[in-house]
Amino acid sequence: MSELPPTTSVKRWFVTTNHKDIGILYTITALFFLLFGGVLALLIRMQLWDPTSQILSGLAYNEAVTAHGLIMVFWFLSPFGFGFANYFVPLQIGADDLAFPRLNALSYWMYLFSGILLGISFFQGGTLSAGWTMYAPLNIPMYTPSIGSTGAVLALFMFVVGITASTVNFLTSIHHSRAEGMGIMDMPMFTWSILATVWMMLFAFAALLAVGLILASDRVLGSVYFSATEGGSLLWGHLFWFFGHPEVYIVFFPALGVMLELFQTFSGRRLVGRKWVIISICLISVQSFLVWMHHMFLTTINLEIKTLMMATTIGISLPFDLVVFSLIYTLIKGRIQFTTPFLFAFGALLLFILGGITGVFLGAIVLDYEFRGTYWVVAHFHYVMFGGATALFGGAYYWFPKVTGKMYDELLGKIHFVIFFISFNMVYFSMFLGWETPRRVFEYNPEFQIYHQFGTIGAFVLGLSFFIMFYNFAKSYVSGEPAGDNPWDYSRTAEWAVSSPPPLENWPNRPSYASGKLEFVKDYVPDGGPAVKADAEGNAATDGGDNHEEHISEYPYWDKHPSHASIWPFAISLALGTVLLGLSGFSESLSFVLGDSIASTTLNVSNPVYPILVVVGLVGMVWSGVKWGLQDFYAPPSEFAERWPFEGVEKVKLGMWFFLASDVIVFGAFLSAAIFVRYNAGWMTWEPLTESLPGLINTFVLITSSFTVILALVAAHRKSRQGLLASLGATIAFGFVFLAIKLWEWNHEIFDRGVTINANAHGDPVQASIYYVTTGLHGIHVVIGLLIAIYLFVRAYQGHYLDDERPIEYFGLYWHFVDIVWVFIFPLFYLF
Amino acid sequence: MIDSLILQQGSDWRAQAEVFDEIFFVFLALGTLIGTIVVAYTLWNVYKYRDDGGEPKEDFDAPEVGELPTGQGGPKAKKLFLSFGLSAIVVISLVVYAYGILLYVEEGPDSPEENIEIMVEGYQYGWDYEYPNGHTESGEMVVPADTRIDITVTSRDVWHNFGSSELRIKSDAIPGDTNENWFSVSSEEVQAQGGEATFMVECFELCGPGHSAMKSQITVIPEDEWETWYEGTGGNSSSVEGGVTADGAASINAAAIGGVSA
């Protein structure tokens, strides 16, 4: 299983965990979604041709608008950029691969299967039709009842799960695996942009994950968050845009990174004010979380907050100004080569300038009042997001020779650019001219018909221009000129220092920047010990040696060969996709009839297909998860690496911390939702639904279980198998006690007090929803923790973890986190 | 158009459309100017420093593969900060200017006469207008000229957005929440349109399959005519034909569109 088949084998592409293979998979899949979303865009444009006649019904039009937005933003733009990131970030930082290769494969397969789920949703009675912003309460089944609507929401959920794994992976890789001598300020600008992107993603996508979970709960389980008049609509707005605004930069930054690289490579100049550009990028990443309410200026938020958001919005435009000026000044005194990649990058800058200036209009609240919901907004964000993506196409031409070893056809590339650039402006500039047309409306004022017709013609030309690129790439791949290792005159980054395409493990020897520039050094590997640095003769160096010895000694498997193949990422993703497909039709296929007690409650199954899919998928997930855990898969840590600012932290632990940071935001969003709705309902009008005593007991149970996990770690450290088994066993027992009390409590609430997920005999129904969903999410975390603990217990029984107790430690981190969350849940739901 | 940055109070206050036109003009003029300068400067430099195949200049220092970036500040950082400072001044002064106008729009003008308060309620797919006397109109809001109309906007089902492009007013209609806005139309405007001014109302937030056809209309008539009409309503509900069903809304919409383009 761990042998990687050759690239000509189909099997390779299902098992590969190599970052370059996965980068190619991402790029090709993203281009497929570009076509998918593009066809939907052309349907929209055809509908706009004539405001008095329609080719799509109102519902079908809304589905097209929604799916176009979702596909382009989620399934095309980000994955396209991350295809390049997958391929080139490890090369640019001098790593062999990403930190967690199997997790990287998992992210890709989650992405692919989530896209397939979205595709299937069109055939489940129609996909979601609530717009890509999915405003509440249009997004709940009362207004968008099709199974496919739920399918699309679950597809998005799955996409976000994959994204989260990818985010953790990139953060760990960039912070943990940089070649010796490459400080964080020395990283190439593309890698810098990706680093800023993944930091934003860590927190922004966690908010989307939370709001997606709440929406899925409303749609599948029947909770009533978003139909609640106690702020349900605004809750969606806040949570969605808290994610949505950083998302704009998440989409744009990879493209910006490509622009920053290409401007340097094709002018032969180094970036002007590099340090300030990096600072600007970091500032934007932080500020992006402070401007979300400018998407909600017309809601009922008060003037003070509006003013604050206006100020922060203008504030965020300033670092962008600096970046744009830096790009322009970099060109001056250069030797600018008008290759296809440069033309696309330069075109992207021009488009972005226009998008930026029209964005300042939107920052002025009085203007925003009128632009809200019109084509001004549509034109603006296409100039920014698709304008940015223009640079990504430049990236595709730029790196094509590196990935394939063949040169693309320059003339065809330039023709593509010219047609692309002209038709791009035809489509989107015409939107500025007809800006008074309301968004997502096809029966518009005939006064604007001329602009929309002009745009429709442009859209078809724009769409067709991509076939020039596809033809160019296909033809060049088959019969292009060999490109050599470095076809560009002024490239600087390390991917151009290796062959095209690069070897499986990237480097001839260990890359190092210790001398101030890239060199490949050969380390001395003694028999039966970890590698140490070698001196000029190839013997073990006596001075310095390994500066991070503690990292190496933590790996007992130092002499193993790295693994590159695993089928389990594919299997887990397939299983999760099956679960979610089943869940999409779950509430339509099952109904509970509540009796007086659990014994007299009946379950009616009207359609067994969906529930069976859920069960099969769940079994598949647990099975492939165990197989994943048992697989002998070795991803070596970079032994001599720059790790600022996480020098002392081991790789998996760092990944765990990143994951927990995103989970903090998930629970933060759930708790904020609870507080926001309660505030809107009138804080003091709610009393706790539950009795406080069971909650108090559970608090003690969990805290004690945290203690027993620490005991387990101590026992493992002391190599006491019995102590380890006893402490882990106690943890598991406490976990089950917690769940038993929880179940008793729910049973009591449902059958004795008449409080169910959407009904509340004692107050607002939404209060009951919040109680069940929030404590339920925590409960799921406990169940997952127990599954892992049982796995660890069995493995400990077989004698593992005494040499290497790190799995126990990382499980402990997760378990403590779950306990800490409870400490916040307890007062909110049991005391006040 | 930009004659008065100081906002007037009292009887000759300005309608939102006028305010919008002014600020839009200012932004458009400045935006076009700055955009043109920046793009022209960039294009000129890209042309000037093109690689013409000749020998590189002496001070041209070609980068090499595998080098680490040196000189993080760079020689042109000073120029960078100058441009940055200039752009910051432009943007910030624009916003300060826009903020003054925002305060006016938020507050609304003092009206010499009593304001008329109308409840606007959105539904899939139309608008209901409830007057202070309890009278409810569907599909058409009839209001007097020269009077400040205060609207309170809400929704009874999903999120809508009540907006009239010509009057430059817009408000989110959120279920369970109320949103306030105001507008007014002068009698000169009403005279110019032949004694009855009509303005198309559209929904600016996707609200379902009938969103496109969710149109309505604001009709402004002279004050005295309106008084008579209002007294005649006597708190009863009436409904303009159509307006409730999607088909009806579409027919009103066609009429409204015709009126605008004529």
UniProtKB/TrEMBL annotation, chain A:
InterPro entries xrefs: Cyt_c_oxase-like_su1_dom, Cyt_c_oxase-like_su1_sf, Cyt_C_Oxase_1, Cyt_c_Oxase_su1_BS, Cyt_c_oxidase-like_su3, Cyt_c_oxidase_su3-like_sf, Cyt_c_oxidase_su3_a-hlx
Leader sequence segment: none
GO BP annotations listed: aerobic respiration; electron transport coupled proton transport; respiratory electron transport chain
Protein's recorded name: Cytochrome C oxidase subunit I
GO molecular function terms attached to this record: cytochrome-c oxidase activity; heme binding
Keyword set includes Heme: yes
Signal keyword on record: no
Location(s) in or outside the cell: Membrane
TM annotation in the entry: 23-44, 65-88, 108-135, 147-170, 190-216, 248-264, 276-297, 309-331, 343-367, 373-399, 411-430, 450-471, 567-587, 607-626, 654-676, 696-716, 723-744, 770-793, 813-831
Domain called Heme-copper oxidase subunit III family profile: residue spans: 556-832
GO (cellular component) term, any one: membrane
Keyword annotations from UniProtKB, A to Z: Electron transport, Heme, Iron, Membrane, Metal-binding, Respiratory chain, Transmembrane, Transmembrane helix, Transport
Pfam family, one: COX1
Entry membrane topology: Multi-pass membrane protein
Family: Belongs to the heme-copper respiratory oxidase family.
Cytochrome oxidase subunit I profile domain boundaries: 13-514
Gene3D superfamilies (UniProt xref): Cytochrome c oxidase, subunit III, four-helix bundle, Cytochrome c oxidase-like, subunit I domain
Main localization category: membrane
TrEMBL record, chain B:
SUPFAM superfamilies: Cupredoxins
InterPro entries for the chain: CcO_II, CcO_II-like_C, Cupredoxin, Cyt_c_oxidase_su2
One Pfam family this sequence matches: COX2
Gene Ontology biological process terms, A to Z: ATP synthesis coupled electron transport
Membrane topology, from the record: Multi-pass membrane protein
Single Gene Ontology MF annotation: oxidoreductase activity
TM regions (residue ranges): 23-44, 80-105
Residue ranges annotated for the Cytochrome oxidase subunit II copper A binding domain, each copy included: 113-232
Compartment annotation: Membrane
Coiled-coil positions: none
One GO CC term on file: membrane
Gene3D superfamilies noted in UniProt: Cupredoxins - blue copper proteins
Keyword set, alphabetical order: Copper, Electron transport, Membrane, Metal-binding, Respiratory chain, Transmembrane, Transmembrane helix, Transport
NCBIfam families named among the record's database cross-references: CoxB (TIGR02866)
Family to which the UniProt record says this protein belongs: Belongs to the cytochrome c oxidase subunit 2 family.
Record-given protein name: Cytochrome c oxidase subunit II
Species of provenance: Halorubrum persicum
